[in-house]
Amino acid sequence: MKKFKEYLLITIGFLIVAISVKFFLEADKIAAGGVMGIAIIINDISPNLSVGMIMFVLNCALFIVAFSSIGGRFGVKTIYSGLGLSGAVWILDKFIPNGMVTNNLFLATVFGTLIGGIGMGIVFNQNASTGGTDILAKLLNKFFHIDIGKSLLIVDFIITLFAVATMGIELGMYSLLSVILHGFIIDSVIEGFNVCKQVMVISKKNQEFSKYIIEKLERGCTIFNGKGGYTWEDTYILYTVLSTNEFIKLKKHIKEVDPKAFITVCDAREVLGEGFNNIVGEE
Fold first, then answer.
1. Computed from CA positions of residues 132, 49, 12, 185, in that sequence, does the dihedral angle turn out positive or negative?
2. Residue 13 CB contacts under 8 Å (≥ 6 apart), including other chains
3. Burial zone of 187 (CB within 10 Å; 0-12 exposed, 13-18 middle, 19+ buried)
4. C-alpha distance across the termini of the chain, in Å
5. How far is it, in rounded angstroms, from Cα 199 to Cα 266?
6. N or C: which end of the chain has fewer CB within 10 A?
7. What angle do the packed helices 34-45 and 51-69 form, to 10 degrees?
8. Do 102 and 108 contact (CB within 8 A), yes or no?
9. Are 44 and 29 in contact (CB under 8 A)?
10. pTM tops 0.85, yes or no
11. Displacement of CA 129 from its chain's centroid (Å)
12. Secondary structure class of 104 (helix, strand, coil)
């Protein structure tokens, strides 16, 4: 059931990306990095070749190169997502030849990047990626010993330079803007999925709160020994990490049981371990 859910979310994610590519980025010739950007540039030079078909061929070639030179570390999810995205764009190209929603380049860049970033965030949140740029970056890392993060920037920057050379400075600048925005949007989407509440409670009723967290919320918690700085009396500090909805339930329970309890709450941007995401992502 868990695998089915993961692949369902990956499918939803790459379909959202396909929509952004077909109706905004491809339609307005915005080569926003990655295999998709390369495909849009080639399509501009050879309009008879559809963007989806070019993406599919490029992804297949890159996966073959990756397996032969880097090793099979990309996993089934990434292959499924990369080829699935290419196939989805290819199908849209076939049945909807002209998918332009707006001829305003700024609106196409913003909405295409926003929609695509949401889809990519969903895919990345399932420990997968759409291949393409990731593979090129890993090749640079292997053969030229350049950090992965820098490699990704170099690859996307080179693609935008080609966009400038083939489609003009204006489209190249919009492509670069899309590349820059993409990273921020993907990070925001992933954080939105994974953000939790890190909670610390100081109360004489912490034993009861601990029981509530374990039995009602089905979460774990940790109890620390402490000492009051003013009274020097022994006390206990309860620590737990909960989803936002779970924290709301706990706060309501604390208010009913011990209104004088002292509570601190922080956002936890990423939580790894039992009950949350795995420390080592599974492909």
1. positive
2. 81, 119, 120, 121, 122, 123, 126
3. middle
4. 16
5. 7
6. N
7. 130
8. yes
9. yes
10. no
11. 8
12. coil
**Is the CB of residue 40 less than 8 Å from the CB of residue 171?**
no
Q: Would you mind telling me the total number of residues written for the chain in this entry?
A: 283
Q: Which residues contact 84 (CB under 8 A, 6 or more apart)?
A: 10, 11, 14
Q: Kindly report the CA angle at 267 between 254 and 9, in degrees rounded to 5?
A: 105
Nearest to 60 by CA among 42, 40, 41, 87: 87
The lowest-confidence range among 16-25, 43-52, 152-161, 168-177 is 152-161
The answer on pLDDT for 136 being more than 80 is: no
**What token pair was written down for 229?**
């700085």
- Between CA 91 and CA 93 the distance in angstroms is 5
User: Of residues 98 and 43, which shows the higher confidence score?
Assistant: 43
pLDDT of residue 171 exceeding 70: yes
Q: Tell me if 279 sits within 8 A of 273, measured CB to CB.
A: yes
Beta carbons within 8 Å of 3's beta carbon, 6+ residues apart: none
